[in-house]
């Protein structure tokens, strides 16, 4: 029997986590011998802590192709990625290209595949912030428009696509990050990052910031750091390299925030462990908002909107934008949480995705004979 050749295109931190769900499932699903899988890493993220550590911790296969694109202006980065991806697709001639999330890597992968006549599968389809000045919003809308199979993490995402007239081949499967989150719980028992940082559970805040909209207004970020620095509680801040560079370029001496523990980005398991034990999480990350919910930890969001609106209903998220008063209120006030409900599937999104892809590939082959 002919195998279905899948190519996954990844390049940024959260995509390695999403890929882990699919790659693992591909090697152990009942029809694994009917699938072959090739991984292309664009090199959008390249520091050890932003890339290789995830391949090691999550036991991911080494990428078959590493394009080494690195950091550039958005158009240059996307253009360079597309050119390099096109070469690989011409050589490999896959049946399907899988792209993940909403980064520049996602967009470059989807456009290159369509130009090469290869159907695109979008994992994490249908999310919307309804802010067209957000690079990720443009990336997701275009990727959704040109994808053949669209896999949604929530029912809201399905509804968003429906409103845009996209109904065919749209599936609610759950969130592949939830698959990885659940499996990883078994590997947290021997983490020692709390001891290493001199922390005890529920006595610290955890902070991440990297969104462009925040970095463009760097004084707001500095203001947030000043406010957090004045609190009695310590704030742990695994700092994204882009944020660190922007702060430094703007003359901000980050060493002056003595109550904020700035550390390099950490591996996924340490991050989950820090999340689980934080009193509150403060973030502008999409993935971290969900993980806060899955850990039942209140989350203060440094944005004025979220793609994960359902979480607002459950009382775990608090959108504060860049308003200092709202930030401090959200950190101090107790949260009224509603009962936890899993709205992200049952931890087997990757299994459902592969099942649908396998079925689709068989029918497609039969009809194109
Ligand atoms: C990208 C995604 C964002 C995602 C984030 C995950 C886009 C448009 N944005 O944002 O949706 O949430 O990844 O983390 O694709 N840098 C390094 N080393 C690295 C990687 C980046 O120093 O390994 C620095 C560079 O100065 C670079 C900056 O960080 O210019 C931003 O990196 P980039 O990949 O362009 O965007 P992210 O902010 O990481
Ligand atoms: N993450 C991590 N180490 C860190 C910061 C984040 O492992 O130092 C993980 C986090 O747990 C989540 C994912 O990276 O699984 C989120 O990625 P990021 O915030 O970079 O991107 P976004 O989700 O906003 O696209």
Protein described:
Helices cover 44% and strands 15% of the residues. The chain is of the alpha/beta class. It has two domains: 4-175 and 345-368, Rossmann fold, CATH 3.40.50.2000; 186-332, Glycogen Phosphorylase B (Rossmann fold, 3-Layer(aba) Sandwich). Strand 2, helix 2 (52-57) and strand 3 form a beta-alpha-beta unit. Helix 3 (74-92) packs across helix 4 and helix 4 packs parallel to helix 5 (135-146). The longest helix is centred in the N-terminal third of the chain and has 19 residues, at 74-92. The mean pLDDT is 96. Uridine-5'-diphosphate binds next to helix 1, helix 12 and helix 13. The site of uridine-diphosphate-N-acetylglucosamine has 18 residues, from helix 1, helix 5 and helix 11.
Secondary-structure blueprint:
Blueprint: E1 4-10, H1 13-28, E2 35-41, H2 52-57, E3 65-66, H3 74-92, E4 96-100, H4 104-115, E5 120-123, H5 135-146, E6 149-152, H6 155-163, E7 170-172, H7 176-184, H8 193-196, E8 204-208, H9 212-215, H10 218-229, E9 234-238, H11 241-249, E10 260-263, H12 268-277, E11 280-283, H13 286-294, E12 299-301, H14 310-313, E13 317-319, H15 324-332, H16 349-367
Parallel strand pairs: 1-2, 1-4, 2-3, 4-5, 5-6, 6-7, 8-9, 8-11, 9-10, 11-12, 12-13
Helix pairs in contact: 1-7, 1-16, 3-4, 4-5
Residues 13-14, 17, 208, 238, 265-268, 271, 285-288, 291 line the site of uridine-5'-diphosphate.
């Amino acid at each position: 029997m002919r195998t279905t050749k899948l190519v996954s295109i990844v390049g940024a931190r959260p995509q390695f986590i999403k890929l882990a769900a699919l790659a693992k499932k591909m090697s152990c699903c009942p029809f694994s011998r009917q699938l072959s899988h090739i991984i292309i890493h664009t090199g959008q993220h390249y520091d050890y802590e932003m890339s290789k550590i995830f391949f090691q911790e999550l036991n991911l296969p080494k990428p078959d192709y590493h394009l080494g694109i690195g950091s550039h202006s958005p158009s240059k980065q996307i253009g360079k990625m597309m050119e390099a991806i096109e070469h690989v697709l011409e050589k490999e001639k896959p049946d399907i290209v899988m792209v993940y999330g909403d980064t520049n890597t996602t967009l470059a992968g989807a456009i290159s595949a369509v130009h090469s006549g290869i159907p695109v599968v979008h994992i994490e389809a249908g999310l919307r912030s309804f802010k067209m000045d957000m690079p990720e919003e443009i990336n997701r809308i275009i990727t959704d428009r040109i994808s053949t199979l669209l896999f949604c993490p929530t029912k809201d995402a399905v509804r968003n696509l429906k409103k845009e007239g996209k109904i065919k081949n749209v599936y609610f499967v759950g969130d592949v990050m939830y698959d990885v989150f659940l499996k990883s719980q078994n590997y947290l028992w021997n983490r020692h990052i709390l001891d290493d940082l001199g922390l005890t559970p529920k006595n610290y805040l955890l902070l991440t910031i990297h969104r462009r909209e925040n970095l463009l207004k760097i004084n707001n970020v500095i203001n947030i750091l000043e406010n957090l620095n004045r609190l009695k509680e310590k704030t742990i801040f695994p700092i994204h390299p882009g944020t660190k560079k922007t702060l430094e370029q703007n003359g901000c001496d980050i060493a002056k925030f003595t109550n904020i523990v700035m550390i390099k980005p950490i591996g996924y398991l340490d991050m989950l462990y820090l999340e689980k034990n934080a009193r509150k999480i403060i973030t502008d990350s999409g993935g971290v908002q969900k993980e806060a919910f899955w850990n039942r930890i209140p989350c203060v969001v440094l944005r004025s909107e979220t793609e994960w609106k359902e979480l607002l209903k459950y009382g775990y998220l608090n959108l504060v934008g860049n308003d200092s008063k709202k930030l401090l209120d959200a950190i101090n006030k107790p949260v009224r949480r509603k009962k936890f409900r899993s709205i992200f599937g049952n931890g087997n999104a990757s299994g459902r995705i592969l099942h649908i892809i396998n079925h689709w590939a068989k029918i497609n082959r039969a009809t194109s004979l």
